[in-house]
Write a structure and sequence with these properties.
binds zinc ion, alpha/beta, nine-stranded mixed β-sheet, elongated, binds ligand BES
């Protein structure tokens, strides 16, 4: 269940309370006992950021964030304080966040961290925790800001739900339907292509990967085009929608590999959440999301290493590894994006193990082709939301690594620079400003602050921030 954010004029003596202060604040607004007041004073003096006072029927946390010169790191520190506070307040039904120093931005950041920490994925549990935190009230913060944050939190939850959902409960059609369900609530126009339509369009990459599957592929288009949109050429988001990646005939091993691969629609899940955040907050931007989707499986009919596939744009691809399937389906979507004459295309994909090997789950790996300005803007949003981009080189030297002896290109490069050669493969299908984002941060096996354990939702706040700042 989603957490509810509310506005409140001020706190009362009954509220569970998180109170932001500066060190030298006086606490006369609250009836602390002399002992409590002394305790708070000495703890803050010792440099503690959080001081908890357990009263008979409520908890008060006094929060005094440490100084940090880097503005973005400071913001992240406050979100992480929200995460720490979750361990204190998660068993309470509600909590009020207020401040004595009128720094309302910090109230929002604590709320963001606390609300994101409260996410659970309990759909398949017989006895889910019956008492999660349900309501956060904020003082001082204007209603529109609370509303905006609520929509962002809901969108991150949506993305995490989609990515955490196993393949047993989310096929390609299931993903398309979920995209439709959420989009229609927010005035996003939805079009879902079925297998017949995909065949008619000759999306050879998507169809090749789908050959081993017993389920049909889908190609979903979400369009947010408000009347007051400031751009006439759309921003097109493309998301990898592999609902399960066994590797196909180039089968993956189970442990720490195939067993994680329900998350291989992470790119799709991210852009579904992001476009919902954009639409629910009525951002005046023309944005399109394209989601090619299928599972990747071995079967008697599966595409095989050595096959040559003709793609949607006519390019021929020699498939040397069926586990490099993401680029096959993304290539068709990237070619399809041309028809919109886009201002910019950004694709999001759990594309390579190499990206994870490079940076772990702490961020996103990016590449671009002659789109430095767009990339700089995205990087800035990444720093602001702490969904950071680590840029890899995209030198032309890598181009030769995907040349094929018998077709136009092949779907794998050499033993090194795997994330880059995957990007180079995609670049072949782009003829517009384009940024590629490989997403190791989509999933964490261990708890990663307020992003939790499992699907992190990383990428949603990045895209939202980027689109909002741009328009
Ligand atoms: N979905 C995987 C990439 C992946 C691996 C994402 C681990 C997240 C965690 C992708 O389809 C894949 O299998 N890539 C191969 C490419 C290789 C065969 C060239 C890889 O990275 O090993
Ligand atoms: Zn794969
Ligand atoms: Zn994959």
């Amino acid at each position: 269940m989603n957490i509810i954010l509310k506005k409140k004029k001020s706190f009362s003596e009954y509220d569970n309370l998180i109170l932001l202060t500066d060190k030298k604040q006086n606490f006369s607004e609250i009836n602390f006992s002399e002992k409590e007041a002394k305790h708070i004073e000495s703890e803050l003096k010792n440099g503690n950021e959080i001081v908890n006072i357990n009263q008979f029927d409520r908890i008060i946390s006094i929060v005094s964030p440490k100084k940090e010169k880097n503005k973005n790191q400071f913001k992240e520190n406050i979100r992480l304080i929200g995460d720490k506070l979750h361990t204190i307040f998660h068993k309470k039904k509600s909590v009020v966040i207020s401040c004595l120093n009128k720094k309302t931005d910090n109230i929002l950041l604590i709320t963001e961290g606390l609300a994101l920490s409260n996410y659970t994925f309990t759909q398949h549990k017989s006895n889910p925790n019956p008492h999660p935190l349900k309501e956060i009230s904020l003082t001082h913060v204007p209603n529109d800001k609370i509303h905006e944050l609520q929509n962002i939190i809901n969108s991150v939850y949506l993305t995490r739900n989609l990515i955490n959902q196993p393949f047993s409960h989310l096929t390609a059609s299931g993903l398309a339907n979920e995209a439709k369900k959420s989009a229609e609530k927010n005035g996003i126009i939805v079009d879902i292509f079925n297998k017949k339509k995909i065949e008619r369009l000759k999306m050879g990459g998507l169809l090749a990967v789908n050959k081993g599957s017993i389920d049909e592929p889908t190609f979903t288009i979400l369009e947010w085009k408000p009347k007051n949109a400031k751009n006439t050429k759309p921003i097109v988001l493309v998301g990898k929608g592999i609902v399960y990646d066994t590797g196909g005939l180039s089968l993956k091993p189970t442990t720490n590999s195939m067993d994680l691969m329900k998350i291989d629609m992470g790119g799709a899940g991210t852009i579904i959440g992001a476009i919902n955040a954009i639409a629910s907050n009525k951002i005046p931007a023309y944005v399109i999301a394209l989601i090619p989707a299928t599972d990747n499986r071995p079967s008697g009919n599966a595409y095989a290493p050595g096959d040559v596939i003709t793609m949607f744009d006519g390019t021929t691809v020699e498939v040397l590894n069926t586990d490099a399937e993401g680029r096959m389906i993304l290539a068709d979507a990237l070619s399809y994006a041309k028809k919109y004459n886009p201002e910019l295309v950004i694709d999001f994909a759990t594309l390579t193990g190499a990206a994870k090997a490079a940076i772990g789950h702490y961020g996103l790996v990016s590449m671009h082709k002659d789109s430095k300005k767009d990339h700089d803007e995205l990087k800035k949003s990444g720093d602001e939301t702490h969904e950071r981009l680590a840029e890899l080189p995209f030198w032309s030297d890598y181009d030769e690594l995907i040349k094929s002896d018998i077709a136009d290109i092949k779907n794998i490069g050499g033993p090194y620079g795997g994330a880059i050669t995957a990007g180079k493969f995609l670049a072949h299908f782009t003829e517009y400003p384009w940024v590629h984002i490989d997403m190791p941060g989509v999933y964490s096996k261990t708890k990663y602050g307020y992003r939790g354990k499992g699907a992190t939702g990383m990428g949603v706040r990045l895209i939202y921030n980027f689109i909002k700042n741009r328009y």
